[in-house]
């Protein structure tokens, strides 16, 4: 099977998976209570508007006054054309709300992701090549500590120590301080620490376990016997074969950092990113905004798995296209 045919098949499966997920999401939204109509009418009533008129307006905007099949067709067309609806809590299109929130999530999620991957893999590889030493024990302890400690509690403790008691860093995020400024960097330090701690621990554990399978392998001993230095042995003969199974957790790790961790981190530090946006949308029953913020991780997971499958064949030539 050629590389082009393999990629075409994976892309086709990604399209089918996306279609199924969108269909299931539509079905859940169609039968779920609390579709936002009550909240929309309540907001109109508090502003002196007519409740019945507000409910009719909501039905017209969301298409609830149309047959189910028509609503499904319009839903799929709107998703394909990136017309993801209107956020009545923010009085703007959903995509505009996401576009405004997403840069704030990336400002701390990207550094946390890079730090967790580099530091986690480096500590794991070093611990595997120095098994049963003090550094190995310290790395293992750090991994268990990072995995066990709750992020929300850790974030609050960091705020109490470094913001309240010492006054070194801000206790919450403030907008309007620019992106590439010292003030913005200072208020991102604590969120990055909270978000990367658990990910570093997870990457360290997985990379150590995978590297231990190759530390005493015959081809590693052969490389050392031929005079290869420690760095070449570590990178070319231990890390590269260990990287193939590590790729399976890389996508999940990034998703966990960007979205699962974002909910906790952004609520604790009041960062106006995607996590806080989704959290407020759930509280305020903004259905269109909730749907968009929950579908984005799904789309990234589908694309990530596609890239991951292709990367397998690049990292390990033994994997044939026909067996995938």
From TrEMBL:
<dbReference type="Pfam" id="PF00528">
    <property type="entry name" value="BPD_transp_1"/>
</dbReference>
<comment type="similarity">
    <text>Belongs to the binding-protein-dependent transport system permease family.</text>
</comment>
<keyword id="KW-0812">Transmembrane</keyword>
<dbReference type="GO" id="GO:0005886">
    <property type="term" value="C:plasma membrane"/>
</dbReference>
<protein>
    <submittedName>
        <fullName>ABC transporter permease</fullName>
    </submittedName>
</protein>
<keyword id="KW-1003">Cell membrane</keyword>
<feature type="transmembrane region" description="Helical">
    <location>
        <begin position="12"/>
        <end position="32"/>
    </location>
</feature>
<dbReference type="InterPro" id="IPR000515">
    <property type="entry name" value="MetI-like"/>
</dbReference>
<feature type="transmembrane region" description="Helical">
    <location>
        <begin position="106"/>
        <end position="126"/>
    </location>
</feature>
<keyword id="KW-1133">Transmembrane helix</keyword>
<keyword id="KW-0813">Transport</keyword>
<dbReference type="GO" id="GO:0055085">
    <property type="term" value="P:transmembrane transport"/>
</dbReference>
<dbReference type="InterPro" id="IPR035906">
    <property type="entry name" value="MetI-like_sf"/>
</dbReference>
<feature type="transmembrane region" description="Helical">
    <location>
        <begin position="188"/>
        <end position="206"/>
    </location>
</feature>
<feature type="transmembrane region" description="Helical">
    <location>
        <begin position="242"/>
        <end position="269"/>
    </location>
</feature>
<feature type="transmembrane region" description="Helical">
    <location>
        <begin position="138"/>
        <end position="168"/>
    </location>
</feature>
<keyword id="KW-0472">Membrane</keyword>
<feature type="transmembrane region" description="Helical">
    <location>
        <begin position="289"/>
        <end position="315"/>
    </location>
</feature>
<feature type="domain" description="ABC transmembrane type-1">
    <location>
        <begin position="102"/>
        <end position="308"/>
    </location>
</feature>
């Amino acid at each position: 099977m050629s590389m082009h045919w393999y990629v075409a098949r994976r892309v086709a499966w990604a399209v089918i998976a996306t279609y199924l997920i969108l269909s299931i999401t539509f079905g859940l939204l169609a039968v779920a209570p609390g579709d936002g109509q009550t909240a929309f009418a309540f907001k109109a009533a508090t502003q002196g508007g007519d409740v019945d008129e507000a409910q009719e307006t909501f039905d017209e905007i969301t298409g609830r006054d149309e047959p189910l099949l028509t609503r499904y067709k319009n839903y799929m067309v709107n998703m394909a054309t990136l017309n993801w609806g209107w956020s009545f809590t923010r009085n703007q299109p959903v995509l505009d709300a996401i576009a405004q929130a997403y840069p704030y999530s990336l400002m701390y999620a990207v550094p946390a992701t890079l730090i967790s991957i580099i530091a986690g893999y480096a500590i794991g590889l070093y611990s595997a090549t120095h098994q049963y030493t003090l550094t190995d024990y310290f790395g293992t302890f750090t991994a268990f500590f990072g995995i066990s400690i709750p992020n929300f509690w850790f974030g609050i403790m960091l705020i109490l120590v470094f913001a309240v008691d010492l006054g070194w860093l801000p206790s919450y995020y403030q907008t309007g301080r620019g992106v590439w400024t010292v003030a913005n960097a200072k208020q991102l330090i604590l969120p990055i620490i909270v978000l990367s701690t658990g990910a570093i621990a997870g990457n360290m554990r997985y990379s150590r376990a995978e590297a231990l399978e190759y530390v005493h392998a015959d081809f590693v001993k052969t490389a050392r016997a031929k005079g290869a230095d420690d760095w070449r042995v570590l990178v070319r003969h231990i890390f590269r074969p260990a990287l193939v199974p590590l790729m399976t957790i890389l996508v999940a790790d990034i998703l966990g950092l960007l979205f699962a961790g974002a909910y906790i981190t952004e609520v604790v530090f009041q960062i106006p990113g995607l996590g806080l946006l989704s959290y407020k949308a759930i509280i305020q029953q903004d259905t269109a905004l909730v749907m968009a913020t929950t579908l984005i991780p799904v789309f990234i997971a589908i694309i990530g798995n596609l890239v991951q499958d292709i990367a397998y064949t690049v990292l390990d030539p033994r994997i044939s296209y026909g067996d995938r």
